[in-house]
């Protein structure tokens, strides 16, 4: 073998990936996943869409435009309009192979080795790695229950003059935090004041439990003149329809979009037209709002069950804010009563009790907090959640 | 907008892409495409496979392993075994989002800025661009009707000590050339002698007209000790099943495969499980050999029709070798009889006559030959081919 490229030295296969190999053990209750519950996928609706596509749209089996399947781009623009995004048309976005590819294309088009990127601490691990592969120095901005702390973010922007700021403002992975409306406005104002480019990643925004979240940065941008041109938005159908379609999208200023299309042409030519056409047909069928309503009800009940069980079983040994949407509870071990305060050690003990979660430290680009952990409530029913939390209590 | 990454300066949106914008003109006969004829896709077979998957394999809508859908990896290993590849198992390959992604992952894992890569002159344009995006200096090795000239290739290897050599030995795009068995052995021997890594791209090998082509480099590698560890192989279902599935694969030594998986995790997480499961089910159905037999018959007739028409209509103004498979006739304007010898000028005149092809110069990484052109016979029937060639004669 020849020598590998030096860019590989910036990343490593994640600790989380190793953990996942243990999850096949029989009887294990897993709160470790980052995925939606497959039992809630609208299989009949997707099947109907697939039938239609295969019978009526022969182009869905052929090569397609790098920018995406036009009917899907139109459906996605309508989807955003329905969430109060103004001035959005099919031509403002491209379809990507999952929103992961949108992040990869942002890295490929924007990041030179040595460029600095600010992210939430904690944030989505695969974003940190995707950007590091292009040579980024990724720096964490601290969060609290209302999302990223904008005063700290401003100081970091002023200090580091980053190439971009990456945020998951709504029910982020892993934090589950919801950035307040006030802070959203402030982020857009910071973008304009410092000329800082902001990437909003929004795969979870539709998974709210009660009231809808505040408008996305994208939807708010019309209130802050100049901010829309400094904003890219990555979206995904993985959490609202089905991850297996691998359909995401990138909305961005035209100059960035043009370069992203060029890079995508040489990355995978285009996203599966078969999957895109199926997704477009599904969205057109009008079934998504009903599906989302069912999903929200189920996740709300599971989040509540997990929150209640954690409080009653683990008491003051654990600290967390009940999430208002998404898939995750982000928690911190307090060490109260001499209990274990290191989440990696807790994870090992938990595996011995046949329950799994993900320690929080790998989600920090810098300044990792070893007491943190991520618990997903999405894929176990309420009885299993209670049983799993009881096992966690034994492990603690 | 912030400044774009400096890697973008190494590539540009292709001249070909611009040409393709003209192809929507009514009445135009296009020999410009690089795609198979959609009318020959086995839509009933794919539909049956999709039904099965949606009814029986709920995992096909969920996230999947970055390495690929296991039943598909097994089917692809069997597909290679049936083409005389020895010692191949599912674990030796990963599924990619089209073989384009296999090429991108090779670039991402292996190429540092300034690394040299040898390719055929001409070769697949999107490979040149994919590698350049990672900073490669791409250098052409000349070809003739029997594929790359191995003596010239050896001199270039000795001179440049490239990071890798990229070849499409069988019915390459755009050349349509078939690397002889003797030259195949020689390429593997060169790999071992110089410790040079070779990437074999093989999307067209199943599209032979009469006798099957010589074994792939991969299938031959067991005859040249040490060559298998210096070989990666990119395959695709796009030309044999349907491009819209976007299913390709990368077979490579384990160390490279592990790094490709890590990079793919952060590029698109995994290829659409929905598309992968559909492809796996199709391959398992046993319909592919019948489909390929039909496709070969049709393409053989079209290639013959185009070859005969070119010889009778354009005479000694054009020179080409009749292809033995694939989708393309690669030709060269001779300038005989004072006719136009510049393919770009000829392409402009052809468009005026409502017929299109692709000039050959962009397919050369270095040392472009402006007299060359690529004609696809894949998507027009024989009458349209004859009419199109008659228009070419008028344009000439």
Task: Provide structural commentary.
Two copies of one chain form a homodimer. Chain A is of the alpha/beta class and 396 residues long. Chain A has 13 helices and 14 strands. The first copy, chain A, has helices spanning 15-20, 43-56, 70-81, 98-110, 125-133, 150-160, 181-194, 217-220, 254-267, 273-285, 288-314, 343-352, 382-395, and strands spanning 29-30, 93-97, 116-121, 137-144, 147-148, 164-167, 197-201, 231-236, 247-251, 318-320, 328-333, 355-356, 358-359, 372-376. In chain A, strand 4 and strand 5 (147-148) form a beta hairpin. In chain A, helix 3 (70-81) crosses helix 10, helix 4 (98-110) crosses helix 9 and helix 12 (343-352) crosses helix 13 (382-395). At the A-B interface, helix 2, helix 4, helix 5, helix 9 and helix 10 of A face helix 2, helix 4, helix 5, helix 9 and helix 10 of B.
